[in-house]
TrEMBL record:
The keyword Glycosyltransferase does not apply. It comes from Nocardia jiangxiensis. This is TetR/AcrR family transcriptional regulator. Residues 33-52 bind DNA. Residues 10-70 form the HTH tetR-type domain.
Length: 196
């Protein structure tokens, strides 16, 4: 029997998660059945259960994708600046990139679902907390640079970073509930709040 490559496995897993995401967004986590995902993915039960023994594993998988998307966008915005841009510019780019990814993946709606589910799903809560810690550490690097320049002194960099990043959940809530038109001026607002 020929061996299956890791790329093949990763691709199949991604296909299943895309189907699960679509089902979850249509029906919610708890009204979506494994049969719904099977039908959407066009896969056999064995193929699905090989990667995700239970629905909760799919929920965590979709949530991880969402969290990874946002963390990647933040890292990209931080790296692109090479220390030359301020917090306002980085946050504005983060918000703009979230809107772009929201078009295809409904990032904001999924974020609301993940936050709600994390109150009852320990694995999801732990993954969400780990993502928040990692994003805070990434932003704290930029905050420390500003503190060395004399801004935001007297408060630990990680606390300032977490406070700044708390803009993101509010933005996602507005995007999910009111739509892209309601948040179009948010990037300009964070640039104004945090000028270079």
């Amino acid at each position: 029997m020929p061996r299956v490559s890791q790329q093949y496995k990763d691709d199949r897993r991604a296909e299943i998660l895309a189907a699960a995401r679509k089902c979850f967004l249509q029906n919610g986590f708890h009204r979506t059945t494994m049969q719904d995902v099977l039908a959407e993915a066009g896969k056999s039960a064995g193929a699905i259960y090989r990667y995700f023994p239970k629905k909760e594993d799919m929920i965590v998988g979709v949530a991880e994708q969402n969290l990874d998307d946002v963390a990647e966008v933040l890292r990209t915005a931080l790296i692109a600046g090479n220390g030359e841009r301020g917090v306002g510019q980085v946050m504005a780019e983060l918000l703009e990139a979230v809107v772009e990814r929201n078009r295809d993946r409904q990032l904001a709606a999924m974020a609301l679902m993940v936050w709600s589910e994390s109150r009852h799903n320990r694995a999801l809560a732990e993954r969400l907390e780990a993502a928040m810690v990692a994003m805070t550490q990434d932003m704290a690097v930029l905050v420390r640079e500003r503190q060395q320049a004399g801004t935001w002194t007297g408060v630990p960099a990680d606390v300032v970073a977490r406070a700044i990043l708390s803009i993101l959940p509010g933005f996602l809530l507005n995007l999910a509930v009111a739509g892209p038109g309601a948040v179009v001026e948010f990037p300009a607002a964070v640039r104004a709040l945090f000028p270079n």
